[in-house]
Structure formats: C-alpha cells, structure tokens
Amino acid sequence: MDTAPVITLSGVRRSFPSGGGRVRAVDGVDLTISSGEVVALLGPNGAGKTTLIDMILGLTAPESGTVDVLGTSPRKAVTAGRISALLQTGGLLPDLTVRETVRMIASLHRDPLGVEEALEASGAADFASRRVSSCSGGQQQRLRFALALLTRPEILILDEPTAGMDVNARRDFWDSMRSLADAGSTIIFATHYLEEAEQFARRAVLMNAGTVLADGPTDEVRKRAGVARVTVTWSPTDAELVELEHVADIQRHGPRIEFRTDDADSLTRHLLSRTDAHGLEVAPASLDEAFRYLTAAETERTAAA
Fold first, then answer.
1. pTM attached to this predicted model
2. CA–CA separation, 124 vs 29, rounded Å?
3. What's the maximum distance between 2 C-alpha atoms anywhere in the chain?
4. Average model confidence (pLDDT) across the chain
5. What average pLDDT score do residues 48-63 get?
6. In this model, does residue 30 exceed pLDDT 80?
7. Is the pLDDT of residue 1 over 60?
C-alpha cells in the first residue's frame, strides 16, 4: 500500500468572534494522514473537529499554519474531485427524486461514477424514486453519500455520517465504507458513536479545545489512558482496600466490586494471592473511557496552569 502523506497540517490555527472576544477553535494542530488510512476524529462539541474538516476541504482558511491536500491546496483538490465529503448539512432540492438529484449533480462532473453505481454503493438504490422531501434524515444522508462518491475521490471526509440512521442503516453504511477502504481510499470521519471508531477506524485522533490529545492506532490510544477494569466478587475490609495499589476508582455493584486501574497485572496478582477475591474479570478500557479520562486530565492540567 502507498503510505505517502495525502493530508498535511502544520501549526494550523483558526479562531472565531465570540462574546466580544475570540475563541480558538483549532489551536496549533499538526497532523499527517497517509494514503489508505482510516482515521476517526473524536472529541466533544466544540473540540474543533468540524473547523478542522472545513480547513481540509478549503471551506475556511487557517489564520496561521498550512494545509496541504494531495500536494496542492484544499480548494484545488476539491475542484479536481480528488477529495469529497459527506457533511451533516447541505442543501438538497426537496421536489427532486433521489435519482434525479444524483443524475443532476453527476452532470456537473467530467467523468462521474455512474448514477446507478453511486446509488447502489451508497445504499440509496431502494428509495431512488422517492422525492427528497419524503426521505428520512438517514436516507438523506445516504443520498449525500452517493453525491460524495460521484467524483471517485481519493480522500473521503465524513462529518457525523450516520446521524439520523437506524442501527441497520448504520451497519450497511459501514459495510460500504469497508469496501472503499479495502479498495485503498483514505477515509477520515468525525463521529459521536465511539463504538463506530472502535469497530472501523484503524487510527484515532482525539481532540479537545482545539488541540490533539492523542493520535495513534485505535488500540494504542485506548491504552494510553492507562485504564483497565478489574471486577471481582469480594467483601473486603477497609484495611484491605487501603492496601491496594494502582487503583484509580472503586465502584460496588452488590457483591461485585469494579476497580479502575492503571496496572491490571499488579492489581490482579495482589487480589489472587493476598485476598479471598474470586470470580475475577479483567477488561481493557473502552475508547469512550479513554476519551473521558484523557479529556478530564487535560482539563485539570489546563486549570492548574
């Protein structure tokens, strides 16, 4: 696989007016994405994800820093059809059918993907004769997906792509994404569904307050929080609990006790060799836990500065 960089952001900053001052939406982000990568962009509302996506797409320009897409400017890459996007919003003509919409937009491109092929690939073929105004929010997202595929893009940007979709539609959508990724497309998606990032993304970028908190293979980002869950059946004394090391949090659920730990091996050895705890279970932190842990740690660090 070609691993040459296709997107490079260096020292990118962007702020917006807010309450008589300015709020820094993106604050000094450095990011390189290589060909064929599947990257999840994660963060709470206001983290800077959408602003970062807008700069990659040339919809807004950075105040400082540089954005390079496929060796050129974002706007030139978009104009050439080499990068495309499925965004949360975007005007659709309500009186046209889904097929008419795809056909109309296809006519604007020099060498578009076939209309029926785009409808099939996006999962919109089953309702292609329906008027846009009669489509659900999830169906309109699939229509936008079909439009994004028309240029046969090398890079596909997805901003909350499954918003409004039911569980089955989300599963079908990600099946389509896997096919594109397997064919070598570079995919970057922002999502609030962290299970989607865990199941699909090979790399996760966690953002908060305009900065990147963590960036790497999804499993490694999860581990970076240094948190695992150890659950046992046990009735400890206060003194036994005080003896425990590497414990960040304790929660009781009836006869079961759940420990959050930064060293599951050491805690497990202690529980099995020095206590009468039994029924022990160890589970790695979820991406959701890692995200919350890293975000809280960054908030505490900023407050202390």
1. 0.79
2. 36
3. 75
4. 90
5. 95
6. yes
7. no
